[in-house]
């Protein structure tokens, strides 16, 4: 393993990444101080204008393009790449998560190096979404989309779906907070996702749920009531709930009363689905506590 680590650093052209890896706890444990100094000296001799001690370390989220250059450099010695994966997994162990529904399509990529790159970019893009770092998520997803477009229509559609969800999150966290209506293009893409009929494309249920909640938030009641595909309504209870809410708001009498009542109805639904303590009534009408659960497990997000 020590031999592979040395060769990994010697085979990388991006010296910032070399320094990041050589500073890792696993690397320090395996290398003695003099061996580590010797390795860094070799790096300096190869590129004397770079000062590894003073040059800032590259942030992981700033280097989606660097992974492509790394893949080219390691292609001749691909036996080193599992070592890089080992180090990365140790650095970000609980952050490497890709939804199970995407597993088969990623594992179906024949080229091992490309498969690793797709996994890296998708996993870290999803992680950025989870921590609301939408700018870096956009960069990572865009890099992944560019990578898969040439060889996999399925993965291309997967990335387009994830970028749609990202755009929904971005609007709701930005302009949507002030009540600014989303652009018509985004609404059209949301409708297009719900109407999509591409076979064999792995779909995450949360995307359909967020699309329906998005349309409810922006009063697209006519569309939800009349145009959502029947198979989607029958297979996803969240979509069915959204359709029922939209139909109820749409059928309320009187324009002024309708707007007020529809708003009140949706506010109550949001409140019920967002509280941490869920309650239910027994046959005698009394409220009884059930198991506590986090608000993130609510029916819909606002």
Automatic annotation (TrEMBL):
Keyword Metal-binding: no
Pfam families: TPR_INTS8
Keyword annotations: Chromosome, Nucleus
GO BP: any one term: snRNA 3'-end processing
GO CC, one annotated term: integrator complex
Species assigned in the record: Pandion haliaetus
INTS8 TPR repeats domain segment(s): 93-301
Domain of life: Eukaryota
Keyword Nucleus on entry: yes
InterPro entries: INTS8, TPR_INTS8
Protein name (Swiss-Prot/TrEMBL): INT8 protein
Cited PANTHER family: INTEGRATOR COMPLEX SUBUNIT 8
Cellular compartment(s): Chromosome; Nucleus
Annotated family: Belongs to the Integrator subunit 8 family.
């Amino acid at each position: 393993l020590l031999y592979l680590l040395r060769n990994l650093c010697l085979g990388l052209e991006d010296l910032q990444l070399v320094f990041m890896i050589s500073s890792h706890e696993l690397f320090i444990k395996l290398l003695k101080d003099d061996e580590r100094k010797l390795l860094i000296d070799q790096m300096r001799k190869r590129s004397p204008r770079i000062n590894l001690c003073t040059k800032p370390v590259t942030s992981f989220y700033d280097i989606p393009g660097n992974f492509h250059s790394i893949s080219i450099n390691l292609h001749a010695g691909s036996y080193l790449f599992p070592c890089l994966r080992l180090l990365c997994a140790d650095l970000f162990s609980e952050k490497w998560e890709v939804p199970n529904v995407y597993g088969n399509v990623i594992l179906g990529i024949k080229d091992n190096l490309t498969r690793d790159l797709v996994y890296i970019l998708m996993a870290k893009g999803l992680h950025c979404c989870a921590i609301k770092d939408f700018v870096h998520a956009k960069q990572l997803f865009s890099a992944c989309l560019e990578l898969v477009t040439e060889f996999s229509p399925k993965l291309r559609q997967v990335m387009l779906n994830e970028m749609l969800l990202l755009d929904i999150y971005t609007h709701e966290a930005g302009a949507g907070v002030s009540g600014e209506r989303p652009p018509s293009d985004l609404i059209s893409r949301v409708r297009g996702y719900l109407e999509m009929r591409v076979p064999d494309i792995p779909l995450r249920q949360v995307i359909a749920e967020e699309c329906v909640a998005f349309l409810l938030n922006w009063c697209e009641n006519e569309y939800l009531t009349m145009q959502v595909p029947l198979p989607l309504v029958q297979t996803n209870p969240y979509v069915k709930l959204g359709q029922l809410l939209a139909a109820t708001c749409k059928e309320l009498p009187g324009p002024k009363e309708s707007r007020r009542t529809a708003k009140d109805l949706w506010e109550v639904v949001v409140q019920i689905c967002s509280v941490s303590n869920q309650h239910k009534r027994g046959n005698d009408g009394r409220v009884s506590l059930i198991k506590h659960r986090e608000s993130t497990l609510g029916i819909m997000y606002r």
